[in-house]
Structures are given as C-alpha cells and as structure tokens.
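I'm stuck. Please check this protein.
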Amino acid sequence: MKSITITLPETIDRSPEEIKIIIAAKLYGYGMLSLGEGAEVAGLSRRAFIEILGKYGVSVFNYDAEELEEDVKNA
C-alpha cells in the first residue's frame, strides 16, 4: 500500500476514518479496487465494507461472479 496526504477545506466536517471509507467506496465503485482492497483501505472487514457501501451510493454488485462466489464461501 502507498500513503498519500491530502488537504481538505475546513468545511469538510468528517473524520479521517470516514474520509478513508469514502475514498475506498468510490474507488471500489470505479472498479479501481477489489472488495477486499476497498475494505482494507477503509480499515473495515469485508462485511462491514459491504454494509456501508450503500450509504455512499455504491453498489456492492460492482464485482465479478468469481469474486462474489469467493466472498460467499468466506462468509
């Protein structure tokens, strides 16, 4: 993993943890991260990440059938 530093306006009243979740959710939604990678970036379990995606307007069904089958096996 690589680290980045971003500067946000004071008007963005969100915790660093929530910002990580938002970024992970959007990158997952764009297909740039797998479900597992998104969960890792967000600092959440896969299950928690799946549950929170809808809050940010991202569909959990944004991944392929193979990944879905693997997640079902590991649930």
